[in-house]
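sorry to bug you again but im stuck and you know this stuff better than me. what follows is a protein written twice so to speak, once as letters and once as structure tokens for the fold. mainly i need to know what kind of three dimensional shape the backbone takes. anything you notice is useful, everything is just below:
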Amino acid sequence: MGIYDKNYDVIVVGAGHAGCEAALAAGRMGCSVLLLAIDLDKIAAMPCSPSIGGMAKGQLVKEIDALGGEMARVTDLSAIHFKTLNTRKGPAVHSSRTQNDKVRYHMAMKLAVESEKNIDVRQVLVDRLIIENNRAAGVIGQTGYGFSGQTVVLATGTFLTGRIHIGDKTFCAGRAGEFSSEGLSVHLKSLGFSIARLKTGTPPRLHRDSIDFSKFSRQEGDSPARPFSRFTSAFELPQVPSYMGHTNKKTIGIMSENLKHSALYGGYVTGVSARYCPSFEDKVVKFPDRDRHPVILEPEGLDTKEIYASGLGNSLPEKIQVDLVRSVEGLETAEIMRPAYAIEYDYINPRTLHPTLETKKIKGLFFAGQINGTSGYEEAAAQGLWAGINAACTVRKRPPFILDRSQAYMGVMIDDLVTRGTKEPYRMFTSRAEYRLMLREDNADIRLMETGHALGLVEKAAVEDLKLRKYWIGEEIKRIKKTALPPSTRLNTYLEAHGSPPVDTGIDADRLLKRNGIDYDLIEKFAPPKSPMDRRVIRQVEIEIKYEGYISKQLKEIQKFKRLENIHIPDGFDFNAVYGLSNELKEKLAGIRPASLGRASRIDGMTPAAISVMMVALKAAPKNKLG
């Protein structure tokens, strides 16, 4: 036993995507930070997909970047394939995604945390917390040596009592080849935290030279590629393709015949699986009418032969995995370098957290990432940033950092977790964000960068540049709205070439820009500004004008949302004394203790009638301030 002689402001346990963002945020806000990892060679490892972003996840990464986080910058440094998804749909659902060189990603993030002057990095397996007066005061490692701190952020990933399953073989591991954390999970149970099990998994890795890529469809990235980070000016790495193929009836037959041998369907896994990222077992069982499923081959890096076989995740014995993989056209001679496996682990009911991600049971203790029941690198990183900022705010006695559902995707995610909880691995989707037209990828910096600057995470020069862009966006919109275009042969020829009806009278330029198939190119040709516009300004002008009616409608919805959010529920409010609420709702409200009527309205089972009852009770409550 013994305690290190330095008292830290923030101790972060776990150096995955959540832990790194938490440590960097707190360190950049001026706090002394200790970042602890089981293995320093696995900082910010990518144990599953070699990719960042995707549907709604890309929005999270853009928001992390706008607030001053690191994920987007490291993504750009290590990306070997850029793609914007959903480009045929509206801008509300455009989502960036990259394939990444896994080693380069890890090394770039490792360098970032090691280079931050306020962060100390150590290799420690944490067994338990130091609790003093119901407040987190440090951690004790497996060797008995401890570290003291004013706050603690637990970002433990899949390591809490982690178990890997391959067929009927089960062994302790947080990830393949790494220790699990056994003592910390037991300790959290002893502190009264409600713990349950979740399950996720990863597909096999194949040797590149054993694959016949001619049987797969080559998938190129975007050219030119758009970076994730607003601070990226150039890309460093060559771009490579991915490859699309499909399983077949033989593949499905092999799985169907061997389901009893899989860990998932053989009774070895007790954790709840991810509904939205199903293993191949789940696909075969839950979609019996389908005779094929996609398989995407993605390089794991530029300096390795390993190929990630997305779509073939399973928990079968290795011998059967070989047969399964080789049943796919183009993989007849494929060599498995790393087998697929399922992993289950402990998580904490996130409804035991405040919206800051601080636990309700113990002050100064924050949870971030998969410990809260989420899945995905991006969800973890966003929570890590959120928890790290709030840990720093606690130490510095600053107001808490909270974004609501109308401000950010991460606000939606945190609200979902702490209000509704989750019984399966939570994944972010655009459909979860009711105000997604306002929460686009392209305006993340406009929404959040000034907040990042106020926190001390974004430099002043970046904010000044943003303010200038916002000014020119407003000015250009006003100019276009005041501009009328006379009919002409040239204009009508242009419109007809773009599939748009001709005009025979003068027409406002903004009305033409609202038409399908017409973009700012029309303005540049027929009513150009005095000076060329920044492409970022043009993009915002185009969206603001094209979707003006929808945006106006959504702003009105947000105003209604804000009215409920601003009706605060005072600390100690007695929900059991509210006449007209069911006992079930009283129990839920007393357990979650929502801070506002808006948050209460999103608890499962709340009805408009119950909200009305609550509103009457709150108005009658003494000393309650209604916003």
In short: The first strand starts at residue 2 and ends at 13. The mean pLDDT is 95.
